[in-house]
Amino acid sequence: MKSIWFFDDVNLFKVLCPHKFKAYKANHDFDAYKKKDYIYFEEDSANKVYLIEKGKVKIGYYSEEGDEVVKAILTRGELFGETAILGESKREEFAQSIDNATSICPIGVDTMHDLMRNNQTFSFKIYKLIGFKLKKLERRLQLLLFKDTKTRLVEFLDELCSDYGYDCEKTGDKVIHHPYTQKDIASLIGTSRPTLNILLNELKEEKVIQFSRKEIRIHKKTA
């Protein structure tokens, strides 16, 4: 599985977007956002779910101290705002574009429920997807609370490897082509970009990884 937002090798965007369905096509539009635009805020009404056609979206919330906590950074084909399907009436997080050309496919909750009622197998997959997403979020929050920064980075790299990695046959290394910037990764593991850069270079010096802007290579462990 390349990403938790893909199931049975099917991109959710190709399956869900209402412009694929004649009954909804006429009244369906895409929404465009620039960098730092908000799709929704905490406490907004939860009456839609969203699919990303292109660009990137940050999901997060603010702590009581006013600090931003990033829960996820999502890219093309990924779903967010899905707790509205489960009956959430108010948003408990914000969603913000972090790309200058983000395009979003909004789906009303009623439309989503119609699609799910008409296909029991599809409905089961959506609920399974939501459960998997919640488990992954819980694991990330546990890392933020109980692990040191370097451990959080190493475990995040393992997660990236599962989502985006493949084996290099010549060397046995794991090669990861991913959509995140260093700022994105720093936000996701709860640290600063300078600290992240220091830790990445430490892992490089320890011959654990090599990295460039969009590729991370995890070296094969030797006995």
UniProtKB/TrEMBL annotation:
InterPro entries xrefs: cNMP-bd_dom (IPR000595), cNMP-bd_dom_sf (IPR018490), Env_Response_Regulators (IPR050397), HTH_CRP (IPR012318), RmlC-like_jellyroll (IPR014710), WH-like_DNA-bd_sf (IPR036388), WH_DNA-bd_sf (IPR036390)
Record keyword Transcription regulation present: yes
A molecular-function term among this protein's GO annotations: DNA-binding transcription factor activity
A Pfam family assignment: cNMP_binding
Domain (Cyclic nucleotide-binding) ranges: 12-91
Top-level taxon of origin: Bacteria
SUPFAM superfamilies: cAMP-binding domain-like (SSF51206), Winged helix' DNA-binding domain (SSF46785)
Gene3D superfamilies registered for this protein in UniProt: Jelly Rolls (2.60.120.10), Winged helix-like DNA-binding domain superfamily/Winged helix DNA-binding domain (1.10.10.10)
CDD domains cross-referenced by the UniProt entry: CAP_ED
Cellular component GO terms held in the UniProt record: cytosol
Keyword DNA-binding among UniProt keywords: yes
Residues covered by the HTH crp-type domain: 147-222
Annotated keywords: DNA-binding, Transcription, Transcription regulation
Name of this protein: Transcriptional regulator
Organism placement in taxonomy: Bacteria, Pseudomonadati, Bacteroidota, Flavobacteriia, Flavobacteriales
